[in-house]
Amino acid sequence: MSKLIDSYNRSIDYLRLSVTDRCNLRCVYCMPAEGIPLMDFHDILRYEELLRIATIAARHGITKLRITGGEPLVRKGIAEFIKELARLPGVEDLSLTTNGVLLKEFASSLKKAGLTRVNVSLDSLRPERFNKITRGDFLNNVLEGLEEAEMAGLNPVKINCVVIKEFNDDEILDFAELTKKKPYHIRFIEYMPFEAGAAWDRDKCISSSQIMEKINSLQNLVPLVNLEKRTGPARRYKFHDAIGEIGFISPVSDHFCGSCNRLRLTADGKLRTCLFSDDEIDIKNVMRGGCTDRELEDLLFNAVRKKPERHHISDNIFKKCSRTMSFIGG
Ligand code: SAM
Ligand code: SF4
């Protein structure tokens, strides 16, 4: 079967599926306090539709799937859906991004369903600040969820921490130190420009090199050779005496577009070939119009051909994306 290769010779083997726009938190950088106008249920792809797209994608070289949202764990039947995805021939890595609020409850059934690993978003280890960032009082639930994920064997447990200046940058060392006690992979992510409750501005961004400098002032980080077959965009390090790892994801200061291998499907069935481009290809309506698998394949190949060479968030002309992260899935 032919593989998905874009016009810049990048091999596309990673599909992110957003399964809902609903969420049980209201993170300040992602949503306004009152939430966002929700999609009609009818507009959200049904599991069998998602499965059909994933099956076709897997036939053409997608080996890595990630479930995201909104908050994927609020969608009913998520573990059963994951079980179906895990059965697809060719899928080697099946992961999920969650805010962790419901993880304690779901970790073991997700693992049994065939989920490989989990990324938990956590920007503060301090209860009051956690409440302020997420507008929800659930830090303990998330911490318990992390424990449960580790026990269930969803390895590695990764923590995504978005760092924002004068907001949570004084916790960088606390997160880094956590890797000495727990086998977590902490991934510091630069704050990205999206239309959300809080207005993004460049001055609130802290670059990965600034974060790294801060950590090195505590103790030198040792670079890790990327031994895994698929390592993603993070540059990986560890403290020599740590059981966990530290990674840096730098979409703003140092884009990794040259090696981008991703496609994204929004909860309402739009294919996005770049996180930061509002160009979307409607799959849902074509599918609901009764298209054949062959036609779906053509759509996928055409989308991949149009994948842009790079994003422009560091250019002066850049316009913030009009969809929020909760629609796109991060
Ligand atoms: N609700 C799940 C969660 O929070 O993990 C999955 C969806 S959420 C949109 C996916 C990721 O996007 C989270 O790790 C979140 O921190 C990140 N995110 C949202 N807005 C962001 C922004 N403006 N810059 C950087 N990361 C962002
Ligand atoms: Fe919800 Fe995730 Fe957005 Fe936070 S980042 S509001 S948890 S979708």
Written account of the structure:
The structure is a single chain. The protein is α/β, with parallel strands linked by helices. It has one domain: Alpha-Beta Barrel (TIM Barrel). The chain is built from ten helices and twelve strands. It has helices spanning 47-59, 78-86, 103-113, 127-134, 139-152, 172-181, 208-218, 284-288, 293-305, 325-328, and strands at 14-18, 64-68, 93-98, 117-121, 157-163, 185-190, 222-223, 235-238, 245-249, 262-265, 270-272, 280-282. Strands 7-8-9-6-5-4-3-2-1-10-11-12 form a twelve-stranded mixed beta sheet. Strand 1, helix 1 (47-59) and strand 2 (64-68) form a beta-alpha-beta unit. Helix 3 packs parallel to helix 5. The longest helix is centred in the middle third of the chain and has 14 residues, at 139-152. It is globular, with a radius of gyration of 19 Å. The two termini are 29 Å apart. Iron/sulfur cluster is lined by residues 23, 25-27, 30-31, 69-71, 99, 121, 325-326.
Helix content: 25-40%
* Poorly predicted residue ranges: none
Mean pLDDT: 91
- Main structural class: alpha/beta
Bound heterogens, unique: S-adenosylmethionine, iron/sulfur cluster
Tell me the total number of β-strands: 12
Element-level helix/strand string: EHEHEHEHHEHEHEEEEEEHHH
CATH topology: TIM Barrel
Count of helices? 10
| Strand line-up in the sheet with most strands | 7-8-9-6-5-4-3-2-1-10-11-12
Proper CATH architecture: Alpha-Beta Barrel
- Tally of individual domains: 1
The biggest sheet amounts to: 12 strands, mixed
Shape: globular
Q: How much is the radius of gyration in Å?
A: 19 Å
Residues in β-strands, percent: 15-25%
